[in-house]
């Protein structure tokens, strides 16, 4: 079934966090959904604006919807970190079920103003919205957030932002970094507890999930994270597997590409299953 985040959060209430996995290319898509089906958990497929443009909005949305509609699990298609309000309106018009407006680099009142515009448009179309306050930092899919700009979410700002904008989900900065894969993040649990108690129902979102240890991941879920993003891990593993298969000695120009991409897709399925299991309570 094709759903938005609000539906997924409701369905998943008391069961843990919903995994949001960044789709980097079309080939990964069926593996991600099959992984969710094997675990019988809802899944969020998310893309950057760059990936949506690379695949094409229409074929991407049509494929996710087709797979979702015949699936036993709930699937959302979410636009990750988008700073462009008009691009988000296009995504909503064409059929994304959820979007993230990222105005975290703007002064808070400007972030609020733009987020409100996105929320009004999205909610009118049955689409959920994630916002961001504080700056998570790091680099993802070539989009770099200056390290100096990364800062913890201030609980009073977050409360003001949520009250004003009525976002359904909120990306918070509690110590994780985008694109982190060499080391593990140090999570500020005190801040997470404070955000959770102040913000009530809004779905807190953990970005930079690749840089979080399994133990911390489980604790973040227990402490109330509702959506956890995994992007870098998928990209990194896809590269590792195809680097091996494409350069094997027996590869010729007549070797089927399917045989070279298949193992990478299988690896994606394993990672999604592994992570989604960790997100269960
Ligand atoms: Zn992010």
Automatic annotation (TrEMBL):
<keyword id="KW-0862">Zinc</keyword>
<dbReference type="GO" id="GO:0008270">
    <property type="term" value="F:zinc ion binding"/>
</dbReference>
<feature type="binding site">
    <location>
        <position position="81"/>
    </location>
    <ligand>
        <name>Zn(2+) 1</name>
    </ligand>
</feature>
<dbReference type="InterPro" id="IPR000771">
    <property type="entry name" value="FBA_II"/>
</dbReference>
<feature type="binding site">
    <location>
        <begin position="229"/>
        <end position="232"/>
    </location>
    <ligand>
        <name>dihydroxyacetone phosphate</name>
    </ligand>
</feature>
<dbReference type="Pfam" id="PF01116">
    <property type="entry name" value="F_bP_aldolase"/>
</dbReference>
<feature type="binding site">
    <location>
        <position position="132"/>
    </location>
    <ligand>
        <name>Zn(2+) 2</name>
    </ligand>
</feature>
<keyword id="KW-0479">Metal-binding</keyword>
<dbReference type="InterPro" id="IPR013785">
    <property type="entry name" value="Aldolase_TIM"/>
</dbReference>
<dbReference type="GO" id="GO:0016832">
    <property type="term" value="F:aldehyde-lyase activity"/>
</dbReference>
<feature type="binding site">
    <location>
        <position position="207"/>
    </location>
    <ligand>
        <name>Zn(2+) 1</name>
    </ligand>
</feature>
<feature type="binding site">
    <location>
        <position position="178"/>
    </location>
    <ligand>
        <name>Zn(2+) 1</name>
    </ligand>
</feature>
<feature type="binding site">
    <location>
        <position position="102"/>
    </location>
    <ligand>
        <name>Zn(2+) 2</name>
    </ligand>
</feature>
<feature type="active site" description="Proton donor">
    <location>
        <position position="80"/>
    </location>
</feature>
<feature type="binding site">
    <location>
        <position position="179"/>
    </location>
    <ligand>
        <name>dihydroxyacetone phosphate</name>
    </ligand>
</feature>
<dbReference type="InterPro" id="IPR050246">
    <property type="entry name" value="Class_II_FBP_aldolase"/>
</dbReference>
<dbReference type="GO" id="GO:0005975">
    <property type="term" value="P:carbohydrate metabolic process"/>
</dbReference>
<feature type="binding site">
    <location>
        <begin position="208"/>
        <end position="210"/>
    </location>
    <ligand>
        <name>dihydroxyacetone phosphate</name>
    </ligand>
</feature>
<protein>
    <submittedName>
        <fullName>Iron ABC transporter substrate-binding protein</fullName>
    </submittedName>
</protein>
């Amino acid at each position: 079934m094709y759903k938005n985040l609000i539906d997924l959060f409701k369905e998943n209430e008391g069961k843990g966090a919903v995994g949001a996995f960044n789709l980097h290319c079309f080939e990964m898509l069926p593996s991600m959904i099959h992984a969710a089906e094997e675990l019988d958990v809802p899944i969020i497929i998310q893309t950057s604006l760059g990936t949506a443009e690379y695949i094409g909005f229409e074929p991407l949305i049509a494929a996710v919807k087709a797979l979702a509609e015949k699936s036993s699990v709930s699937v959302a298609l979410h636009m990750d970190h988008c700073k462009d309000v008009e691009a988000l309106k296009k995504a909503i018009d064409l059929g994304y079920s959820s979007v993230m407006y990222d105005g975290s680099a703007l002064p808070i009142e400007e972030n609020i103003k733009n987020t409100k515009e996105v929320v009004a448009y999205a909610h009118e179309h049955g689409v959920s919205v994630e916002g961001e306050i504080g700056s998570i930092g790091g680099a993802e899919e070539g989009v770099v957030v200056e390290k100096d700009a990364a800062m913890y979410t201030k609980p009073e700002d977050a409360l003001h932002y949520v009250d004003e904008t009525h976002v359904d989900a909120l990306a918070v900065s509690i110590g994780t970094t985008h694109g982190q894969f060499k080391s593990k993040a140090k999570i500020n649990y005190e801040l997470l507890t404070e955000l959770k108690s102040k913000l009530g129902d809004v779905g807190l979102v953990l970005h930079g999930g690749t840089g979080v240890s399994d133990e911390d991941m489980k604790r973040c879920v227990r402490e109330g994270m509702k959506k956890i993003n995994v992007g870098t891990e998928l990209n990194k593993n896809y590269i590792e597997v195809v680097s091996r298969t494409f350069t094997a000695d027996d590869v010729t120009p007549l070797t089927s590409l399917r045989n070279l991409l298949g193992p990478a897709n299988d690896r994606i399925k394993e990672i999604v299953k592994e992570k989604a299991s960790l997100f269960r309570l």
